[in-house]
Design goal:
Layout: H1 11-24, E1 28-32, H2 39-50, E2 54-59, H3 67-77, H4 88-104, E3 108-113, H5 121-133, E4 141-146, H6 157-160, E5 163-167, H7 173-186, H8 191-194, H9 197-207, H10 211-237, H11 245-254, H12 257-261
Parallel strand pairs: 1-4, 1-5, 2-3, 3-4
Helix pairs in contact: 1-2, 3-4, 4-5, 7-9, 9-10, 10-11
C-alpha cells in the first residue's frame, strides 16, 4: 500500500535540503540515519520531485566490490567502458570530468549511493576525491546515505570540508502518534484505543523512534494487548459478543498491510 510521505521529524527539511543542494552543486551530500530511519524513502522522494530537472544515476552498494566495479558502473552512465590504458581510479576521475558537460546541456547529474556504509571505505573516498578534483559547481553531485559509520569513511577534516551532512533524528513520542494515527484510522482501527498514552509509551520505547522497528513491533504490541484483554473478558463473563471485541480487533490489525509494506522506512537493505 502506498503511504503518504511523513514530513515531521526533520524528514521534510532533509528532503528540501537535498533538493536545493543537489541543484546548486559544489558540495557532496551525506544523509545520515539509523537503519530504518527513512533514508531510502527520502531518496525516492528526491528522485520523484526533481527528475524533471536533474539527471539521477543510482549506484547499488552490493555492486561496488572494487574500484574496477565502481568505474564500470559509473562509466555506464557515460555510455562507454574503461579504456585499456587507463586505471580504474583514472576512469572514476574521468567520469566526474565528463559529468561537467551535463550542466552545459541543462541537466545536472546527481549520483545516488544508498547503503553507502556497506561500501568499502576506500571506494567511498575515491568517489568523493574524484568529485573534489573536478569542477564541483558543474560535476555530478554525490549523495551518500548510510548510518553513522559512513562518516568514518570520510573522517578527516580535509575530506569533510567539502561535505554537507543531513541527520535524520529518531521520532519523538508525539511524532510516533502523528505517524500512526492516520494509518490506524485508514486500516479501520480505533486510535483512541491503539494510540492511548500507555500504548504510545510502549510503542515509542520499543521502536526507539525508528520507522523500521515501529513496523515490526506495533502489531505485536497491539495483538498482545488484544489477547490479554480477550482472556480477561472470557474469564469474567464467558464468550459473549462483547468478549469478541478484542479478538475481532486483532483480526483487523492483522490486515494492516501498511505496516509491512510502507516505504517510509528503509528496506531490508538498510538504506
Amino acid at each position: 500500500m502506498e503511504t503518504p510521505f511523513f514530513p515531521d521529524a526533520m524528514r521534510h527539511h532533509a528532503l528540501e535540503t537535498l533538493r536545493h543542494l543537489c541543484g546548486f552543486g559544489d558540495l557532496g551530500l551525506v544523509l545520515v540515519g539509523a537503519v530504518g530511519s527513512g533514508k531510502t524513502r527520502i531518496l525516492a522522494e528526491l528522485v520523484r520531485a526533481e527528475s524533471s530537472r536533474l539527471e539521477f544515476h543510482t549506484l547499488r552498494a552490493v555492486d561496488l566490490t572494487s574500484s574496477e566495479a565502481l568505474a564500470r558502473h559509473l562509466l555506464s552512465a557515460a555510455h562507454r567502458s574503461i579504456d585499456g590504458t587507463e586505471s580504474a581510479r583514472d576512469a572514476v576521475y574521468g567520469f566526474f570530468r565528463w559529468s561537467e558537460t551535463r550542466v552545459r546541456k541543462g541537466r545536472r547529474m546527481v549520483l545516488l549511493l544508498d547503503d553507502a556504509d556497506q561500501v568499502p571505505p576506500e571506494l567511498v573516498r575515491l568517489i568523493f576525491d574524484a568529485f573534489r578534483a573536478s569542477n564541483t559547481s558543474a560535476a555530478a553531485v554525490p549523495v551518500f546515505a548510510g548510518t553513522e559509520t559512513l562518516m568514518e569513511s570520510l573522517a578527516s577534516a580535509e575530506e569533510t570540508a567539502g561535505l554537507h551532512r543531513i541527520d535524520l533524528p529518531p521520532l519523538t513520542r508525539r511524532e510516533v502518534e502523528a505517524y500512526l494515527h492516520p494509518r490506524v484510522h485508514k486500516a479501520g482501527g480505533d486510535p483512541g484505543i491503539l494510540l492511548n498514552q500507555r500504548m504510545l509509551v510502549q510503542l515509542h520505547q520499543l521502536s526507539q523512534g525508528n520507522f523500521g522497528r515501529l513496523r515490526r513491533i506495533a502489531p505485536a504490541v497491539w495483538l498482545d494487548i488484544a489477547g490479554a484483554s480477550a482472556g480477561r473478558r472470557r474469564a469474567l463473563s464467558g464468550l459473549t459478543p462483547m468478549s469478541l471485541r478484542w479478538p475481532a480487533l486483532a483480526l483487523v490489525l492483522l490486515g494492516v498491510s501498511w505496516l509491512g509494506g510502507s516505504p517510509q522506512h528503509d528496506g531490508a537493505g538498510g538504506g
